[in-house]
Amino acid sequence: MGGSGAGCRAGGIRQRWHPFDPPLCSSVDHRGRSSGFASRRLASRVCLLKGCGTLFVPHHHHERYCSEEGVHAARIWRRWLADQKYRATEPGKRRRQQQSQRYRERCPEEPEPMSETPATPREGDPKDESGKKCCCHRPGCYTRFTPPPQSPHQKYCSVECHEAMRTVLVREKRWRQKVFDTRRQRPGSSP
After folding, report:
1. How, if at all, do strands 55-56 and 134-135 pair?
2. Taking a C-beta distance cutoff of 8 angstroms, is the pair 141, 50 a contact?
């Protein structure tokens, strides 16, 4: 996890930054005024996308990913997770069965002599997932796992994923609290 070299997976190039370089964000906004929180340089952080681990300097407090490729990969992961959740529901299972039925009607196979077990898994055969039914909630992590009986609502597949998400969520909570406290202290502002 050295400096900010390459971006997420797609190899997008990020600007190299050294701790002794001047801050990347300007202390004056486009109208020439000092810009409160934005005038401070944000601390470098690690890209949240699993498998990336690039150290980068964010331009905004809520940036989680080191590049546009990382944002795109996280968007694809969120869509995948939503699909997995939907397919686990009864309407999702029914719709998937209807989809499979339409496919079988559209592409009929020629009948083969029945054997005990096919040599290769066939389309539509359940994959051997050995009961793993939960998906990790860290962006970019496609790992499925079985939660232990003592914590059936576990959201992360490993301690690494849990700590990465915890770090981000705690940082964002502190930032929201800081903004809320600042707004409450201003004269004339409503709580």
Report:
1. unpaired
2. yes
Residue carrying the six token digits 């997932």: 129
Cβ atoms of 52 and 140 within 8 Å: the answer is yes
Q: Which 3 state secondary structure label does DSSP give 140?
A: coil
Residue type, 74: A
At residue 134, the 3 state secondary structure works out as strand
Backbone φ and ψ of 171, nearest 5°: -60, -45
DSSP codes, 41-69 = PPPPEE--STTT--EE--SSTT--SSSHH
pLDDT tens digits for the chain (191 residues)? 444 444 454 444 344 444 444 443 333 444 444 445 445 678 888 898 898 888 888 888 888 898 889 899 999 999 999 988 898 889 999 998 999 899 988 887 766 666 666 667 666 655 655 566 788 999 999 888 888 888 888 899 999 999 999 999 998 898 888 888 887 776 665 55
Burial per residue of 73-111, b for 16 or more beta-carbon CB atoms within 10 angstroms, e otherwise = bbeebeeebeeeeeeeeeeeeeeeeeeeeeeeeeeeeee
Three-class secondary structure of residue 46 per DSSP: strand
Measure the CA–CA gap between 54 and 46, rounded to whole angstroms: 6
Q: Which residues pair with 46 in a beta bridge?
A: 55
In the numeric block, which tokens belong to residue 134? 């939960």
Give the span between the Cα atoms of 74 and 30, in whole angstroms: 31
